[in-house]
Amino acid sequence: MWERPSSVSVVAGSGEGRTELTAFDRALMDAGIANLNFIRVTSILPAGVRIVPVPSFAPGGLTPVVYARIASHTPGERIAAAIGLGLSKHSYGVIMEYEHPGTADNAEAIVRGMVEEAMAGRDLPIDNVIVAAKDHVVERIGCAVAAAVFWP
């Protein structure tokens, strides 16, 4: 059975590549999490989890992650990804992800609204909202990513 995560890192990055997959890889490198094997999970933040910078890790580890990803083949297009965490001091919280053709500022505003709606729907008071967002202007094939990475 999996351990309950005790901490989470919130990151965002962008990159260019010759394919969508290599652009995604470069975006993950920019975010500092390229050498992990992601296990994509849904969007509940355990109670009491700490927000931490990305710690040192051994490459290849299986790691639970919530992430937003967008790629584009359209030169000059601006794309953005955002991740938002809603924290409630005495309870669990939520994580929302969003990606779109547009700016990081707009993606951040939208994901904040998503966090507020999800917390309200659960009757959870919001003590803090943490957002990471990144945009990218495509040169050839570009990608933007934002992620919440869980650590034991």
Report on this model:
This protein has 152 residues and is of the alpha+beta class. The chain has one domain (7-151): Pyruvoyl-Dependent Histidine Decarboxylase, Chain B (3-Layer(bba) Sandwich). Helices cover 20% and strands 45% of the residues. The protein has 2 helices and 9 strands, in the order βαββββββαββ. Strands 2-5-9-1-4 form a 5-stranded mixed β-sheet. It is flat.
In round numbers, the mean pLDDT is 96
What distance separates the N and C termini?
12 Å
Any low-confidence stretches, pLDDT <50, length ≥5? Answer: none
Query: From the 3D coordinates, which CATH architecture would you assign?
Result: 3-Layer(bba) Sandwich
- At the fourth level of CATH, the homologous superfamily is Pyruvoyl-Dependent Histidine Decarboxylase, subunit B
The fold-level CATH name is: Pyruvoyl-Dependent Histidine Decarboxylase, Chain B
CATH class: Alpha Beta
Which structural category fits the helices and strands? alpha+beta
Proportion of helical residues:
10-25%
Strand tally: 9
Rg calculated over all Cα atoms: 15 Å
Provide the number of structural domains: 1
Within the largest sheet, what's the order of strands? 2-5-9-1-4
Rough shape? flat
